[in-house]
Design brief:
alpha+beta, 13-stranded antiparallel sheet, 9-stranded antiparallel sheet, 32 strands, globular
Length: about 650
C-alpha cells in the first residue's frame, strides 16, 4: 500500500524552508580566500545570495486536513468526519526539521532531516505522531509560469514514510480508525508537493511556500520513496526542468479489486503564479492505448484509445480537496477491465478531427526501474547499498538492470558565475573516475528487487577537490530490455558523496586540526557564529563545550545534528569530539600554536562557469544551477 491507496487524508497549507545560501557556491569553501562580505545580503557580485543567514529549518505552517477518502466515499466536511479541519503540525517537544543539500555541487537532491509530524485534534495534541524518514525531493521542474522578482518558479515532490508512528486518543473519526487499522508496523505513507516559494526579503511570504499532500497506509514490502505503479514520463527540453508539452512526469496505480485507477497530478500541472491556480490547458483526458507500442507517440485517433475520464483540474476547489489525486473508475468498460494491465496509459488533449495530442505517455512497454533511495553519503571503507525495483505496467518484473556513470546536473560552482577576487578554481567532480566500483549489471529477484552495492576508494587522492572534503559520483541505471527510444526521467540516478580517508592525530589541537574545520562552517553558516558561538574563535568555542559536544554526538537523523549540512565525515567528526573531551594543563581542550593557513587546490579544475545574466540576488539558488547546466549543454561542454 502507498499514498495512492485508501484510506487517505489530504492536507494543504504552507511550508517554511529557511535555507542558508552562502554554502551554495563551492568556491566559498576555500578558507584562505573567504571574505566576510560574502556573508552579506547585498547587490554586489560577491555576496551570500538572497538568504545568507538562513537557519536551515524546514517546517509545515498552517497545514490542515482538507479532505479524506474512505473507500469510494470522499469526505470534505467536519460534519462527515471530525478529521476535516484538524491541524497537521510539527513536533511540539523538539526543534523543527532541517533542509539539507547533499553538496554545493549537487543541490538537486535537497533532503529533509529530523522532521516529526503529528495530527493535532485539539483536545489530543497528537492523535498520531511519526518521524519523517529523510528523503530528497524529485521531479523538480519549472511549474510556476509567471513570477515576481526572486520568486522560485520550480516545484517538486517529496515521497517518504512516517516511521515509529504512535497513536493516541479517540477522535471518533472513522477515517482515522480505518487509517490506523490499515497501517503496518508503525508506518504511514506520505507524499507532498512544494511550490510557490518566496525568496524576496521584502514580501510577507519570505522563505514560505505552499504545500499540498496526502497521508495513507504503508506496506513494509513496498518502496518508501516511489510507487511500483504506472509511470508517466514527460518529454523535457535540454533543460530537464522544462516539460515539452507543459505537463511533467507523474505516477498512477491500478487497484484491480476496486477497478479504480488513481493518478497523481499534484506536481505535474503548471500553475499561473505563486497563488497556485492552474494554467488552463483545456480539456485533459486520461486514456488507455488499445495496442502496445515501443514508439513515442505524438498523436492518436479516437478509435485507438479507451477513455478513462477527464482530469478535473479546473474544477473549483479540486486541488485543495485532492492534492492532485484523482480516481478513474473503469469498471463499466469491459475492454479496459480486461486490458488495463497490459496496455499503456496516455494523457491526452483533444484536437480537431477526432484526434488527440499525446501530452504524457507511459514508459515504453510499461518498463520502469527506480532506486528507492537516491542519495548516499559514504564514509571510507564503507559499502553503499541501495534497493532498486523493476516493473512492467505496474507489476513487479524479474528483469536485469544495467548501471553506468552519470553526472546529471551535478558539477559547476553549484551557484554563482562571477569570478572571485582572488580567483578560486572550481573543482571537477567524478575524478578519479576509477575510484568508484559497482557491477555493470544486476538481476532482480522474483519480486523485482535488486540491491546495488558500491564502494569508493579515494586512498590514492584523499582530497580530490582540495578545499572541500569528499568527491561526487553519479550512478545511472536502466533495464537491459528498455528500448533506446525510451524517454527516461532525468532525475532517476543515484548521487553519491564519498568522503576521503582521514587519520586524525592522537592529540588534535585547535590551531592545527579543529579551527580549519569549524572556521569553514562559521564562514558558510553565519547564523550560528553571529548569534550563538563564533566557530572560528577558540575562546567562544570552549565556552560552549557542552552544547557543541551534544550537537556533534547526535545521530544524523536528529534535527540538532551538527553540522546541519551532514557533510562532515565520521572520522573528522570523531576528531572534533575527541578534541572536545581532551584537556590540557588549564583544563581546556588543547590549543596548540598558530599555524599559517594554506590554500588547497583541487586535483582537477572544472571549466570556468559560463556567465549568466542574473541579478546578484538571484544567484545562489537552484534556478541558477539549472541555468548553468543548460548553458553547459548548449556550449557542448561535459555537464
Amino acid at each position: 500500500m502507498s499514498y495512492l491507496d485508501v484510506p487517505r487524508v489530504v492536507f494543504t497549507g504552507q511550508f517554511q524552508a529557511d535555507v542558508s545560501t552562502i554554502n551554495n557556491d563551492v568556491r566559498y569553501f576555500q578558507n584562505t580566500t573567504f571574505q566576510k562580505k560574502y556573508q552579506d545580503l547585498s547587490t554586489t557580485d560577491d555576496n551570500g545570495g538572497w538568504n545568507p543567514e538562513g537557519t536551515g529549518i524546514f517546517r509545515f505552517d498552517g497545514c490542515r486536513i482538507t479532505a479524506a477518502q474512505l473507500g469510494n466515499q470522499q469526505i470534505t466536511s467536519a460534519a462527515q468526519d471530525p478529521i476535516i479541519g484538524m491541524a497537521l503540525e510539527n513536533a511540539d517537544d523538539r526543534v523543527f526539521g532541517k533542509l539539507v543539500d547533499l553538496d554545493p555541487q549537487q543541490q538537486m537532491v535537497s533532503q529533509i532531516w529530523g522532521m516529526q509530524l503529528r495530527l493535532d485534534g485539539g483536545a489530543e495534541k497528537a492523535l498520531f505522531r511519526g518521524d519523517f524518514v529523510p528523503v530528497a525531493f524529485t521531479n523538480l521542474w519549472r511549474r510556476q509560469k509567471t513570477t515576481v522578482f526572486l520568486d522560485q518558479a520550480l516545484g517538486a515532490v517529496y515521497q517518504s514514510v512516517l516511521r515509529d508512528v504512535v497513536w493516541r486518543g479517540d477522535a471518533k473519526s472513522k477515517v482515522l480508525d480505518a487509517l490506523r487499522a490499515a497501517s503496518a508496523e508503525g508506518f504511514l505513507s506520505i507524499n507532498f508537493n512544494v511550490y510557490g516559494y518566496g525568496r524576496d526579503p521584502a514580501i510577507s511570504r519570505y522563505t514560505l511556500g505552499r504545500v499540498a499532500g496526502v497521508i495513507a497506509p504503508y506496506a513494509v514490502d513496498e518502496p518508501k520513496h516511489f510507487v511500483i505503479g504506472r509511470q508517466m514520463v514527460a518529454a523535457v527540453t535540454p533543460n530537464p526542468t522544462v516539460a515539452v508539452n507543459g505537463v511533467y512526469s507523474f505516477q498512477c496505480k491500478v487497484d484491480e479489486n476496486r477497478k479504480i485507477l488513481t493518478a497523481d497530478f499534484g506536481n505535474c500541472l503548471q500553475i499561473v503564479n505563486a497563488e497556485g491556480a492552474f494554467v488552463d490547458n483545456g480539456q485533459l483526458v486520461l486514456a488507455l492505448l488499445k495496442t502496445d507500442t515501443d514508439t513515442v507517440l505524438s498523436t492518436v485517433t479516437v478509435d485507438q484509445v479507451a477513455i478513462l475520464g477527464n482530469v478535473n483540474y479546473l474544477r473549483s476547489g479540486w486541488y485543495a480537496q485532492t492534492a492532485g489525486l484523482q480516481e478513474f473508475d473503469y469498471s463499466a468498460d469491459s475492454w479496459s477491465v480486461a486490458n488495463i494491465a497490459s496496455r499503456p496509459l496516455l494523457l491526452l488533449q483533444p484536437q480537431p478531427g477526432n484526434n488527440y495530442k499525446v501530452v504524457v505517455q507511459e514508459s515504453l512497454g510499461g518498463l520502469f526501474v527506480r532506486s528507492d533511495a537516491f542519495v548516499c553519503r559514504l564514509n571510507p571503507g564503507k559499502k553503499g547499498m541501495i534497493d532498486l525495483y523493476a516493473s512492467r505496467y505496474g507489476k513487479r518484473l524479474q528483469g536485469a538492470i544495467a548501471f553506468s556513470d552519470t553526472q546529471g546536473a551535478m558539477g559547476g560552482t553549484g551557484a554563482g558565475d562571477a569570478p572571485l577576487d582572488p580567483p578560486v578554481p572550481t573543482p571537477d567532480i567524478a575524478i578519479p573516475a576509477d575510484a568508484i566500483s559497482y557491477p555493470t549489471q544486476l538481476p532482480c529477484d522474483p519480486q523485482g528487487k535488486a540491491t546495488l552495492e558500491f564502494t569508493v576508494d579515494l586512498s590514492k587522492n584523499p582530497n580530490p577537490r582540495g578545499y572541500i572534503d569528499g568527491q561526487l559520483y553519479g550512478i545511472g541505471y536502466q533495464l537491459t530490455t528498455q528500448s533506446i527510444r525510451s524517454i527516461g526521467s532525468f532525475w532517476n540516478f543515484i548521487s553519491v558523496l564519498a568522503f576521503g580517508p582521514f587519520q586524525a592525530p592522537a592529540s588534535p589541537t585547535w590551531y592545527a586540526d579543529i579551527q580549519p574545520l569549524l572556521t569553514q562552517y562559521g564562514n558558510l553558516y553565519p547564523i550560528m557564529s553571529k548569534h550563538l558561538v563564533d566557530l572560528g574563535d577558540y575562546d567562544s568555542v570552549v565556552s560552549h563545550l557542552r552544547i557543541l559536544k551534544l550537537a556533534f554526538s547526535l545521530p544524523i537523523e536528529d534535527p540538532n545534528h551538527m553540522p546541519v549540512t551532514r557533510d562532515l565525515s565520521d572520522a573528522r567528526r570523531n576528531m572534533i569530539l575527541h578534541w572536545l573531551d581532551s584537556r590540557g594543563a588549564d583544563g581546556l581542550p588543547l590549543k596548540g600554536t598558530p599555524v599559517v593557513l594554506t590554500a588547497h587546490a583541487p586535483a582537477h579544475a572544472a571549466p570556468d562557469p559560463i556567465p549568466l545574466d542574473l541579478d546578484p540576488l538571484q544567484t545562489r539558488g537552484k534556478t541558477e544551477v539549472m541555468l548553468q547546466y543548460q548553458a553547459r549543454i548548449n556550449a557542448k561542454e561535459r555537464p
